[in-house]
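Person: Please comment on this record:
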Amino acid sequence: MVEAKYDWQRIAAPDKQIVEQLSQELGINPVIARLLAERGITTPEEAHSFIQPSMQAVHDPHQLHDMDKALERIQEAVAAGEQITVYGDYDADGITSTALMYEVLQDVGANVNYYVPNRFRDGYGPNAEAYQKIIDQGTKLIITVDNGVSGKAVIDPVVKQGIDVIVTDHHEMPEDLPDAYAIVHPRYPGSNYPFADLSGVGVAFKVAWALLDEFPEELLDLVAIGEIADVVSVSDENRPLIMMGIQELRQGMRPGLHALVKEAGISEQSLTDQDIGFVIAPRLNALGRIADANEGVELLTTLDEDRATKLAKAVEQANSKRQELVNEIMGEAQQQVDRLPQDQPVLLVVGHDWHQGVLGIVASRLMDQTGKPTIVASTNDDQKIAKGSGRSVDGFNLFAALDGHRDLMTSFGGHPAACGLSFETENSEKLRNVLLHEAENQHFDGQKKQPLKIAASISPAEVSMQLYDQLVSLSPFGPGNEQPVFELQPDQINSIVTMGKDNSHLKFMVGDQQSQVTVIAFGKGKLAAVLRAAMANQIKLAVKISINEWRGKRTVQLMLEDISIDSPVIIDQRTNKLNPQLFNEAGYYVAFDKKLRDNIQPHLPEGSALSPDEAAQTDFSAQRVTIVDCPSTLEEFEKLFSNDQQAPSMIRLLLFQPHSVYLSGMPVRDEFARLYRLVVRTTQIDLNRQLNQLSTRLKINAERLIFMLRVFSAAGFVTIKDGILKPVSDVNKTDIKETNPYQRRVAQYQAEQVLLFSDSKALAKWVLNCLNIH
């Protein structure tokens, strides 16, 4: 039994007539028609507008708060030749925002430079020392991109020096805003901008559009990267902006991006939103995490192809280093999480000498694993200050939780789903208590599974390249237009193999020979044995439809999001030799033979070695159970699970049997007849001395011969005392098959036939039948 990680929530099926109409009139797969209907798209006209949105969906930049005021100041600075500094951020959204703003200011003839703060030296957002350095170098106007609204403490003193600051940002707005010359923000209090979820580069693009007084399509490649990287809603105007940006990216007009895509090994001509989210954005982020994000701005703005290639290689190296650091820190952080109470709803993990550039990634991965909001921080050399990043799940506003407790932090900023912060280590416990208290205030249940929306059920036969190509027309995917997740119940699972240098990933096939589809499951390598042992009809998969491109060949594949196995998993580890390593698994151990049970008890925790009677009274729900040895009868096995207790999550079968009745076989009628004829012609036989001689003479192996003599004794044909066999002269007619020894051997033969000598699938099916699972 494998419990699903997420709470699968099936989206209500739309009206069948609407689905049929969309499918027929648009000539699309019914699955795609259903997805459109689930998005509230009910007519062909609405479908066309969704699939190919027009420029009318993009809002006028002048509707943004303070936009006209900001433009006037920028134009004044350009005209006067004042030095302008674009002050950016070190993540992918900040890097693209900086590149875009810098590029457009160059285009209008500004005297402009840029400054991307160093994550470790400057921290997030406005930094007093960095601002002063910029001012000392002659800057008269600072334009922030992707930061600034939380920078009142730094910006206000600068303004008093006579320096103007224009803030362009999209992050959550604190109650006390900086006294900037202008604040361009889609959620500025009291403003009427129609869409609130632009990213930093989206806001920067609006400034560029207004400044140029024309729609700058050539900048949309940067917009697509920054918006996807920042995981903003892919709805309203963001959808056409990203779609047009992807088209710009496919043109390969920007040398730096062309070199980056080539270095990453993806196809520029068929580049998708997934390539941006999982390939391009992480590489740009890697620069800010462990290197210099200013190189990212140079990469995006350079026109020198040789320089672009060199920078792209540096980005690739930074990304590889980032991956190594994440894996290393993840292992240490996981150990801390394992020691925390399981019912703790929000996690705060503090380490020492962890690379601060990757803490956000570690927080995100721990959040994905646990389903809980997570903050990961690391102390510096003197261990007095911890810096870190937080990531949150639906249902818990991380920014709101900490915003009212800034007195416990030396710096803080972010939005509902993520934050960056620094705090004195002596405040760690206070912050933990704040997070626990805020979880109560927000009615957040850390034990509750996060939802996973299931768009529809699908079979392997329905998965095709045609379906994938039509599915792509609904992209780009993200918040507000989630990539569809399908439920698939395979009738067959085969070709199960692990992948990766540490076998941490999984690959298997679903469907029959006519409709086989590959499933890729990252981080699920440990499920290989479980899948091999599970009955296919008890397995449910939550998958996304994807594409695999290799050497110019495109094949459709499925990416595993979650898995549920309703029945106990039967692990076949049958053995004829026991060793201590077999008893390292947690859970209960059932041994039918008392002597064997006494022998294994020292290797197990107290109370985990059970007799068959004890097992029959034990509630095995969600437990792992190992059956150590083979019972004498099938009924003995069946009685283990005959009560109303819940089924275990896993049954591991060792079924140790040192002497097999099945291999020895059942004597045939001729063998009984030959033995009987020999016995009645003799006065007595000393079995202690003559057994082997008798076995050789009759050509019957010793074990089977002893059994036959016991049958004769039970039938009254012979007497055996102290090893001396004597025939009985006055014999009653008896059917030897009715004797107890014969019946016991038949029962053991049948038990071994089913439990020891059937194949794994047949055995698993039989065991599940015992549990009334079919």
The chain has a mean pLDDT of 93. The chain has 28 helices and 27 strands.
